[in-house]
């Protein structure tokens, strides 16, 4: 009997782990679940390596796994890694995508000049809330520059590229539609990939801060070499965390995917073109919260310690982190108030302050204000309001009486004196008898 009971328990645990593995959902467990999550998608990857604070929570049926959202929700919470063509501006390309997909809002991760090609992240509807964070993310460019005179020494050009690193002063070029104001931009890495002295052409790879003008950088290379230089071509190969190899698509792909869906009712092509917004947040540190906490966070509440299920290592104070649900949905971007060690040792207190809420309100049910403490506070407030209402009524009556007395005094009329009730009754009876 004992063996059969143990075998039955083993089978049940294996079945539970299978359902978790297939559905990409973290379930409530008595102990830490032994799951291999190295192949799980997006923000749920390597969940088993996160520190566990609490395993007990009540799972909610609301919400969707990022890869299993209905198509309408998938588009609303989607991003496109678009290969921007040459000649049209970034705003024109974004407007074309908006018109092609028939959505309400679109935004992009950073403006590219009309002649520049490459990685342009287009955010749709709800994912436009991530536009600001993506615009401030680092960028990587491949640029071709031409020198005005021949410089035969490749080493000299390499030395100049090494010197032009770190914080540099830049003024936007004359062709730019920005105020020409001196600013500081940081160059993290500058590599000379190729150089042809006969054609006076060179190719550089530039890893830089957002807002860097590569055209100005090429002019500075020419100034440092003493011969002058100009940028010939430019392509962005990385924006934030997405590169050319991360499902980059063209405008033709977007139009074809929409046409296939409308004419053949097939979602596959459209789902390949549009990625979930969680793809942009893979590089952030994560904190997984209980399903009962999600709705309060969507209304702007601070994250408190009792609402945490799991958290990543090496979280420092003032770090930008992402709060995720047990299904792997991005709830909000937040600024950490504590370090990882404090989350592990403390019992109560605020953990993070919200920076930008991503998820829609009321997607998860409201769970705040249902405990005994909240009920007691509600009762106290109701009693105070009743007392306050009585006091307000009395104050209003006194104010009206005073106003009437003041008006009558101004007109020279003495305020009427109250007669006793007996006198009034006797006078009325005498008048009745005389009649």
From TrEMBL:
<protein>
    <submittedName>
        <fullName>Dyskeratosis congenita 1 dyskerin</fullName>
    </submittedName>
</protein>
<dbReference type="GO" id="GO:0031429">
    <property type="term" value="C:box H/ACA snoRNP complex"/>
</dbReference>
<dbReference type="GO" id="GO:1990481">
    <property type="term" value="P:mRNA pseudouridine synthesis"/>
</dbReference>
<dbReference type="GO" id="GO:0000495">
    <property type="term" value="P:box H/ACA sno(s)RNA 3'-end processing"/>
</dbReference>
<dbReference type="InterPro" id="IPR032819">
    <property type="entry name" value="TruB_C"/>
</dbReference>
<dbReference type="GO" id="GO:0031118">
    <property type="term" value="P:rRNA pseudouridine synthesis"/>
</dbReference>
<dbReference type="Pfam" id="PF01509">
    <property type="entry name" value="TruB_N"/>
</dbReference>
<dbReference type="InterPro" id="IPR020103">
    <property type="entry name" value="PsdUridine_synth_cat_dom_sf"/>
</dbReference>
<dbReference type="InterPro" id="IPR002478">
    <property type="entry name" value="PUA"/>
</dbReference>
<dbReference type="Pfam" id="PF01472">
    <property type="entry name" value="PUA"/>
</dbReference>
<dbReference type="GO" id="GO:0009982">
    <property type="term" value="F:pseudouridine synthase activity"/>
</dbReference>
<dbReference type="InterPro" id="IPR004802">
    <property type="entry name" value="tRNA_PsdUridine_synth_B_fam"/>
</dbReference>
<dbReference type="InterPro" id="IPR012960">
    <property type="entry name" value="Dyskerin-like"/>
</dbReference>
<dbReference type="Pfam" id="PF08068">
    <property type="entry name" value="DKCLD"/>
</dbReference>
<dbReference type="InterPro" id="IPR036974">
    <property type="entry name" value="PUA_sf"/>
</dbReference>
<feature type="compositionally biased region" description="Basic and acidic residues">
    <location>
        <begin position="387"/>
        <end position="406"/>
    </location>
</feature>
<dbReference type="Pfam" id="PF16198">
    <property type="entry name" value="TruB_C_2"/>
</dbReference>
<dbReference type="GO" id="GO:0031120">
    <property type="term" value="P:snRNA pseudouridine synthesis"/>
</dbReference>
<feature type="compositionally biased region" description="Basic and acidic residues">
    <location>
        <begin position="10"/>
        <end position="19"/>
    </location>
</feature>
<dbReference type="InterPro" id="IPR002501">
    <property type="entry name" value="PsdUridine_synth_N"/>
</dbReference>
<feature type="compositionally biased region" description="Low complexity">
    <location>
        <begin position="424"/>
        <end position="435"/>
    </location>
</feature>
<feature type="region of interest" description="Disordered">
    <location>
        <begin position="381"/>
        <end position="435"/>
    </location>
</feature>
<dbReference type="InterPro" id="IPR015947">
    <property type="entry name" value="PUA-like_sf"/>
</dbReference>
<feature type="domain" description="Dyskerin-like">
    <location>
        <begin position="36"/>
        <end position="94"/>
    </location>
</feature>
<comment type="similarity">
    <text>Belongs to the pseudouridine synthase TruB family.</text>
</comment>
<feature type="domain" description="PUA">
    <location>
        <begin position="285"/>
        <end position="359"/>
    </location>
</feature>
<dbReference type="InterPro" id="IPR004521">
    <property type="entry name" value="Uncharacterised_CHP00451"/>
</dbReference>
<feature type="region of interest" description="Disordered">
    <location>
        <begin position="1"/>
        <end position="31"/>
    </location>
</feature>
<dbReference type="GO" id="GO:0003723">
    <property type="term" value="F:RNA binding"/>
</dbReference>
<keyword id="KW-0413">Isomerase</keyword>
């Amino acid at each position: 009997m004992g063996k059969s009971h143990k075998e039955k328990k083993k089978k049940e645990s294996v079945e539970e782990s299978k359902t978790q593995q297939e559905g990409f959902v973290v379930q409530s467990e008595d102990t830490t679940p032994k799951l291999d999550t190295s192949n799980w998608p997006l923000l749920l990857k390597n969940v088993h390596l996160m520190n566990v604070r609490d395993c007990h929570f009540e799972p909610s049926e609301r919400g969707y796994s990022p890869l299993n959202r209905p198509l309408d929700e998938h588009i609303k919470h989607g991003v496109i890694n678009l290969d921007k063509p040459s000649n049209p501006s970034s705003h024109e390309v974004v407007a074309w995508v908006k018109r092609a997909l028939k959505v309400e809002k679109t935004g992009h991760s950073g403006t590219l000049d009309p002649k520049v090609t490459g990685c342009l992240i287009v955010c749709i509807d709800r994912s436009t809330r991530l536009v600001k964070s993506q615009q401030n993310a680092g960028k990587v460019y491949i640029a071709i520059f031409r020198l005005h005179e021949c410089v035969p020494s490749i080493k000299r050009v390499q030395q100049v590229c090494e010197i032009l690193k770190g914080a540099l002063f830049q003024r936007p070029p004359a062709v730019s539609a920005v105020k020409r104001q001196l600013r500081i931009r940081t160059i993290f890495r500058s590599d000379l990939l190729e150089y042809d002295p006969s054609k006076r052409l060179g190719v550089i790879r530039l890893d830089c801060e957002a807002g860097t003008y590569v055209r100005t950088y090429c002019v500075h290379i020419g100034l440092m070499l003493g011969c002058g230089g100009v940028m010939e071509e430019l392509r962005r190969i990385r924006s934030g965390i997405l590169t050319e190899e991360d499902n980059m698509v063209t405008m033709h792909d977007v139009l074809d995917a929409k046409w296939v869906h409308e004419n053949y009712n097939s979602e596959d092509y459209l789902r390949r073109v549009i990625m979930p917004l969680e793809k942009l947040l893979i590089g952030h540190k994560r904190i997984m919260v209980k399903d009962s906490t999600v709705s309060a966070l969507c209304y702007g509440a601070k994250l408190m310690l009792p609402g945490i299920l799991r958290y990543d290592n090496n979280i420092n104070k003032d770090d930008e982190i992402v709060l995720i649900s047990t299904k792997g949905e991005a709830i909000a971007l937040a600024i950490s108030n504590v370090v990882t060690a404090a989350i592990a040792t403390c019992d109560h207190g605020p953990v993070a302050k919200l920076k930008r809420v991503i998820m829609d309100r009321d997607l998860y049910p409201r769970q705040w204000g249902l405990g005994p403490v909240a009920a007691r506070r509600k009762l106290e407030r109701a009693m105070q309001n009743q007392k306050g209402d009585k006091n307000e009524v009395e104050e209003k009556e006194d104010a009206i009486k005073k106003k009437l007395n003041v008006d009558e005094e101004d007109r020279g009329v003495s305020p009427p004196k109250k007669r006793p009730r007996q006198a009034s009754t006797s006078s009325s009876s005498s008048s009745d008898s005389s009649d």
